[in-house]
Write a structure and sequence with these properties.
By secondary structure, the protein is an alpha/beta fold. The protein folds into five domains: 71 residues, no CATH class; 97 residues, OB fold (Dihydrolipoamide Acetyltransferase, E2P) (Beta Barrel); 107 residues, no CATH class; 191 residues, Rossmann fold; 158 residues, Rossmann fold (3-Layer(aba) Sandwich). It has 24 helices and 21 strands. Bound molecules: adenosine-5'-triphosphate. Adenosine-5'-triphosphate binds next to α10. It comes from Acetitomaculum ruminis DSM 5522. It catalyses: Couples ATP hydrolysis with the unwinding of duplex DNA by translocating in the 3'-5' direction; ATP + H2O = ADP + phosphate + H(+). This is ATP-dependent DNA helicase RecG.
């Protein structure tokens, strides 16, 4: 048997069955062994019938007390009824469409019945259970039984049988990538053991070992591919090598704050990239408010200092304006004469023409903007650096459309999405990664609370007190206009209500997505000058808004938001030296799930931890769905859950890439297990 053979060479798999297998993506023998269980059935120890006092899946060990009876229900379904008893009580069992059982199961026989127990009036009924002789069941409780994703016409049993055939007759050990020395070094079991125990775990411990090994393999292949890609993108020469960066350094010394160690490290990495042999391709990842903007500014100063142009592209007009103003302000304070401009969809036609000209002539050193930057009209004399504020708003395509306005430019991407470094390596395969892992030290941790609406009055008092102390506040509501759902609060009415409650001198205003960009920008401008003290807003403020004087965040209907989003929203406060307060308000705190979710953001201010826990609650499908598209399916793998393994894998990949012989051997094995490396690479690339 070859792994490339179609599965029809297996016993018991005819044309019809192999067609069903095709529907679940299994065509060849290789597909079959890589088709991993979607879950496992755990056969729990049996319980006394008397102890069953809630619905659920149970095992009971009981004697059949009377001959089985066949009935037909009102809607013509055939059911079989069975009475059973143990020392503690009796119970009814019902099977559907299984008339044959009447001649198999006889009064007096003892079995372990395993199935769902439901309440029926005052009694409990077991529905359609499996049944096993006692000894067989005892064996089953020690193991996990695989459950595969099926398709109509293809039973779990058929899949189990097919996989067992391959495992029994194929020399699985020949597919191992690694030798004993390597396996020992990374404390891994061998591949044969792993494959056996992922499909048919001998014990729970064996399953854990197997899962760990296969997860390792998945990531090993994945990261090897990334490494290959990186090797090829590394070859891009640095066309814009900087020779000096003393102005950037003097800016650092004159800033009103000292850069954090994390920021200093990233700055050094950038100097090294920009002055090195190859073009920079770097992702800067830092939690909300960690201080990424100044890094972007310093990078652009370095380029300007060497006579090159740079572009900063952000997702919204408001954000572009904020960055532009910040850069202008900083330059004028420090007496820097570099030419900075802003280009957005709202720039007036005449002004636009001037900007296009100045970009083409090289007069503008730094251009900040939105998507407007990628139009054909924008031509740049010597664009050398492209910075994008990722936040998942720009695809790789847009990033490269801007980059294409220069000749193999440096690329710097910024993100606040709290993804573990290893996952970032997958999402941003071709990039180096810098982490800003510590927030500036002048910050006091935000004080949080989760409260129901009875706390509203107190929240308003807190807001008034903070405003009196010179600070400002945000109130976030999920919807804009009159809402059909009375439980949700709308921004405009809310603002009116606050205006009535708050003393006259406290200026309240609102912001929502349906407003015109210029209106939004005008309101944000007034808020950042403290002309407005309380801003009632939808989540339009979520990304990047920076008003360090704002210290209160009241989030109405906080149950409506995702946890990562709540973290982003909260990130708008706690950005300065003053104590900040975040109030997660919800009328649904009696719901345990809601409370449990909100407690996560309440207790943690670490974006990475919050995402992790959010994933635990929601399952990882959402995030992994995009990562795995079209490539290896990490179906035994959850990137977040396996962060430790991934770290180990990165080391292992580095190990291998240092050694040509090992590398070749491993790639041969990968090919053997999955097919040709080039096609694998192609699949990999197309999944981005
Ligand atoms: N080292 C530092 N010490 C003190 N304050 C700093 C430091 N670095 C940046 N800041 C200030 O912290 C605030 C947040 O920084 P910045 O806007 O760059 O955050 P960010 O990482 O872009 O966050 P977000 O992803 O939320 O937009 C700004 O007001 C900035 O001036």
């Amino acid at each position: 048997m070859e792994l490339t053979n179609e599965i029809s060479i297996l016993k018991g798999i005819g044309k019809k069955t192999s067609d069903y297998f095709k529907k679940i993506g299994v065509v060849t023998v290789a597909d079959l062994i890589n088709y991993r269980p979607s879950g496992y059935k755990v056969y729990t120890d049996w319980v006394n019938i008397a102890d069953v006092d809630f619905e659920g899946v149970f095992a009971i060990r009981a004697r059949i007390t009377a001959p089985l009876v066949k009935r037909t229900t009102k809607n013509q379904k055939s059911v079989v009824l069975c009475k059973v008893a143990d020392e503690t009580g009796d119970m009814s069992i019902i099977w559907f469409n299984s008339a044959y059982l009447c001649s198999v199961l006889k009064a007096g026989m003892v079995f372990v019945f395993y199935g769902k127990i439901k309440k029926d009036g005052n009694t409990y009924v077991m529905e359609h259970p499996e049944y096993f002789p006692t000894n067989k069941y005892r064996e089953l409780t020690k193991t996990l039984y695989p459950v595969y994703s099926k398709t109509k016409g293809l039973s779990n049993k058929t899949i189990v049988k097919a996989i067992s055939q391959v495992i029994e007759s194929y020399p699985i050990e020949t597919l191992d990538f690694f030798d004993e020395k390597f396996l020992n070094k990374y404390s891994l079991c061998d591949y044969e053991y792993a494959l056996n125990n992922i499909h048919f775990p001998f014990s729970k411990e064996a399953y854990t070992k197997a899962k760990e090994r296969l997860t390792f393999d998945d990531f090993f292949i994945f990261l090897s591919m990334i490494r290959l890609m990186k090797d090829s993108s590394r070859q891009i020469d640095n066309n814009f090598r900087i020779k000096k960066w003393s102005i950037a350094e003097s800016v650092i010394n004159k800033l009103p704050f000292e850069l954090t160690d994390a920021q200093k490290k990233v700055f050094k990495e950038l100097v090294k990239d920009f002055s090195g042999d190859y073009a920079c391709h770097r992702l800067v990842e830092g939690d909300v408010g960690s201080g990424k903007t100044i890094i972007a500014i310093l990078a652009m100063i370095m380029m300007a200092e060497n006579g090159y142009q740079s572009a900063l592209m952000v997702p919204t007009y408001v954000l572009a304006t904020q960055h532009y103003k910040k850069i202008k302000g900083l330059f004028s304070n420090l007496g820097l004469t570099f030419n900075v401009s802003i280009l957005t969809g709202h720039t007036k036609a005449k002004e636009k023409r001037e900007i296009y000209e100045k970009l083409e002539s090289g007069e503008i050193d730094i251009i900040v903007g939105t998507h407007a930057l990628i139009t054909d009209k924008v031509k740049m004399k010597n664009l050398s650096l492209v910075i994008t504020d990722e936040q998942h708003r720009f695809g790789v395509n847009q990033r490269s459309m801007l980059a294409d306005k220069g000749e193999m430019v440096h690329v710097l991407a910024m993100t606040a999405t709290p993804i573990p470094r290893t996952l970032a390596m997958i999402l941003y395969a071709d990039m180096d990664i810098s982490l800003i892992d510590k927030a500036p030290s002048n910050r006091l941790p935000v004080k949080n609370c989760v409260v129901d609406t009875r706390f509203r009055k107190k929240s308003y008092e807190l807001i008034i007190n903070e405003v009196r102390a010179g600070r400002q506040a945000y109130v976030i509501c999920p919807l804009v206009e009159e809402s059909e759902n009375k439980d949700l609060v709308n921004v405009i009415d809310y603002t009116k209500m606050l205006e009535e409650i708050f003393p006259r001198d406290i200026k309240v205003s609102y912001l929502h997505g349906a407003m015109k960009d210029e209106e939004k920008e005008e309101i944000m401008g007034r808020f950042s000058r403290n002309d407005i003290q309380v801003l009632v807003s939808t989540t339009v403020i979520e990304v990047g808004i920076d008003v360090a004087n704002a210290t209160v965040m009241l989030i109405e209907n906080s149950e409506r938001f995702g946890l990562a989003q709540l973290h982003q929203i909260r990130g708008r406060i706690g950005r300065g030296a003053h104590q900040s307060y975040c109030i997660f308000m919800s009328p649904f705190l009696h719901n345990e799930k809601t409370k449990e979710r909100l407690d996560i953001v309440n207790k943690s201010t670490d974006g990475f931890e919050i995402s992790n826990k959010d994933l635990d609650l929601r399952g990882s499908g959402d995030i992994l769905g995009t990562v795995q598209s079209g490539f290896l399916e990490f179906n035994t793998t959850d990137i977040y859950e396996n962060a430790d393994i991934i770290k180990k894998v990165s080391l292992a990949v580095e190990d291998y890439f240092g050694n040509e012989e090992d590398k070749e051997r491993v790639f041969k094995k990968i090919e053997q297990r999955f097919g040709n490396i080039d096609s694998l690479k192609e699949k990999f690339l197309s999944s981005f």
